[in-house]
Specification:
Blueprint (H helix, E strand, L loop, with lengths): L5 E3 L3 E6 L20 H7 L5 E7 L20 E4 L2 E4 L25 E5 L22 H7 L4 E7 L1 H14 L3 E10 L5 H11 L3 E3 L4 E3 L1
Parallel strand pairs: 1-10, 2-3, 2-7, 3-6, 7-8, 8-9
Antiparallel strand pairs: 4-5
């Protein structure tokens, strides 16, 4: 964990990942205490010129939903053309309240919303690529057009969408920072695996209290 202060500048971007009703308490795929990250996120937003939101955005017949496979239950795995897929409870279905951003999240200063997971054939954890690791979301191009060098990630959840976004961001050449007090975790068996992967890629972990404005 990095303890030194970090000065935020115009080449930095805050990426707020999947802070949606279905990932918060009482949601279909709730991250424990997922709503508790909203306050530190909201306090951090004014420090940044560039703010991007990502939004899980699934059709109801999405193939990552266990309900769309006979004799399958949530959290079982299934082989897909792009690899092993965890089957999820139905969540963040297009047009439902569960897919909306949490009402306490300040979305007014965001310049861009990246929607992912809308292709029924393939899931998308990362905000950069679908799970085939080939199909881009457009985020990398947006960041480069705006001369972004460093990205600061917050949101839900560490083991999946936040973690895979960090991996892809690092591989694409961005400096990646995780603001851990503003990231929710399932703390399941995938936590340590993700933590180890991020360490190998030199992804920096720190807190929102370490940031200050130029």
């Amino acid at each position: 964990m990095l303890n030194q202060k970090i000065k935020i500048n115009q080449n930095d971007a805050l990426i707020i990942i999947d802070v949606q009703n279905d990932f918060c308490p009482n949601g279909a795929l709730a991250v424990p205490n997922g709503d508790q990250i909203i306050e530190p996120i909201n306090k951090t937003i004014p420090l940044f010129k560039h703010i991007i939101l990502s939004q899980d955005w699934h059709p109801k017949d999405h193939k990552s939903f266990a309900s769309n496979h006979k004799d399958k239950n949530p959290f079982q795995t299934l082989s897909m053309p792009y690899g092993e897929q965890i089957l999820w409870p139905d969540h963040c279905i297009i047009g439902t309240s569960g897919a909306k951003f949490h009402p306490a999240l300040n979305v007014n200063l965001a310049q861009c919303v990246i929607r992912k997971g809308y292709n029924r054939e393939i899931d998308s954890y990362s905000t950069f690529f679908e799970n085939d690791k080939i199909s881009p979301t457009g985020l990398a191009g947006y960041l480069r057009e705006n001369n972004i060098k460093r990205i600061f990630l917050v949101g839900l959840a560490f083991e999946y969408c936040v973690g895979f976004s960090a991996i892809d961001g690092a591989k694409l050449g961005f400096e990646v920072y995780l603001l851990m007090d503003a990231i929710g975790c399932f703390r399941n068996h995938d936590f340590n695996n993700m933590d180890n992967l991020l360490t190998k890629l030199n992804v920096v972990t720190t807190g929102t209290d370490k940031l200050f404005e130029t």
